[in-house]
Write a structure and sequence with these properties.
One of its GO terms (biological process) is DNA repair. The chain is α+β, with helices and mostly antiparallel strands. 19% of the residues lie in helices and 32% in strands.
């Protein structure tokens, strides 16, 4: 075994980036891990009604080595989107296992990687979801953020996932037990060919709206969108012990064209730019095309407590893509940018390398009519 190269080895000079992404899906105690040539995929789910997907792109690591092992049984690999005729190729088999996500997060913050001073957006999540205390201390000084590295190693099938943190001469190694997948780790399906709503906006706007609604302790989040009449996009909280509340995203247009006009392409690029200067819109993309059975307005309900579990991602992300399909599955895809050289939250110098763009995707199953009635009750 000593002469065999490990299946996977990656070194990161900034463990805070890894911690930030994994903390976004920290609502579950365990996560399914899949190692691929392009990065590490972490998937967490709860009761098959919410799923969080975080992808640690290889660009986040200073070195990334992946030696794909041979498939245990040809033609029986699970959770692969590859064609059947490629399953016999060892290079198409990517190791998949389960680890304790809570233990992994505790490991990554041994040296204080959750210090709020390195994440200017961390405070935004506290208004929606309680967080662990991260006050200043001996291990949270800014100087401790320098000269830190994180090495992730997966030696062979069934071996522990090894995490080694090194900082100013101090090295700590934690080995996390890996478990076999139960075969039920299937993504909540989003019908990409049946998307009836796609809205791209700053993540801060969505975070602020959820924060406002959370003040009334609602049990149900109602999403309403229309391309032809106001309110074009609205979020409502109902079923709580306090009064109901609603947040409407209106677009000031100075004319007859609303976001539906943008969706239909009735405004050319010149007038779009002029409109952005006169009255900035909160949405960059607004596409709503409900099926005829829904009429002109799309309406869907979700459990508010589940939406709140994406608060961390809302707080640290730059943008969010809100998508919904005909079955009512809701996808919140968050775009998070990291400086390729420095610590998180620091803009790269002019002329330097572009930031590393990563994504965290949440998927939610809608409430049925009887489930909504139970919540309101």
């Amino acid at each position: 075994m000593t002469d065999t190269e490990p299946i996977f080895t990656a070194v990161s000079s900034n463990a805070h980036h890894l911690y930030t992404l994994l903390q976004c899906i920290g609502f579950a105690s365990r996560a399914t891990v899949q190692i691929t040539p392009d990065g590490i995929r972490f998937s967490a789910e709860e009761m098959r009604v919410i799923q969080g997907l975080a992808f640690l792109d290889k660009a986040l690591f200073t070195s990334y080595t992946f030696n794909p092992p041979a498939a245990p049984n040809q033609g029986t690999t699970d959770n692969n989107d590859n064609d059947d005729d490629t399953t016999s190729d060892p290079s198409t088999y990517y190791p998949c296992f389960v680890v304790s996500l809570s233990a992994l997060l505790e490991t990554l913050k041994i040296f204080g990687t959750n210090d709020s001073s390195t994440n200017p957006n961390a405070g935004r999540a506290s208004s929606v979801q309680p967080t662990h205390p991260s006050g200043p201390g001996a291990f949270s000084a800014p100087s401790l953020l320098l000269d830190r590295s994180c090495t992730i190693r997966y030696t062979s099938e069934g071996s522990p996932l090894s995490i080694t943190l090194s900082e100013t001469g101090v090295k700590t190694t934690c080995e996390l037990t890996t478990y076999e997948t139960e075969g039920s780790e299937v993504d909540i399906p989003l019908q990409r060919d049946a998307i009836i709503m796609k809205i791209i906006m700053r993540s801060a706007w969505l975070h602020n709206a959820i924060s406002e609604l959370a003040a009334t302790s609602p049990s149900v989040l109602k999403i309403s969108a229309s391309a032809t009449r106001e309110p074009f996009f609205a979020l409502s909280g109902t079923g709580g012990s306090f009064s109901e509340s609603s947040v409407e995203f209106s677009v000031e247009n100075g004319g007859a064209n609303g976001p539906g006009g943008d969706a239909r392409g009735s405004i050319d690029e010149g007038s779009r730019a002029k409109k952005a200067k006169l009255a900035p819109t909160v949405t960059e993309t607004f596409l709503v095309s409900p099926p005829s059975s829904m009429g002109s307005r799309l309406k869907q309900n979700y459990k508010f407590a589940l939406i709140q579990k994406a608060a961390r991602a809302m707080a640290v992300a730059n943008k969010v893509s809100i998508r919904g399909d005909r079955q009512g599955v809701l996808s919140l895809q968050f775009m998070i940018e990291f400086d390729a050289n420095g610590a998180g939250g620091v803009r790269p110098l002019k002329g330097g390398p572009p930031p590393v763009v990563t994504f965290v995707d949440f998927r939610f199953v809608p409430l049925l009519d009887d489930e909504e009635g139970d919540d309101l009750e």
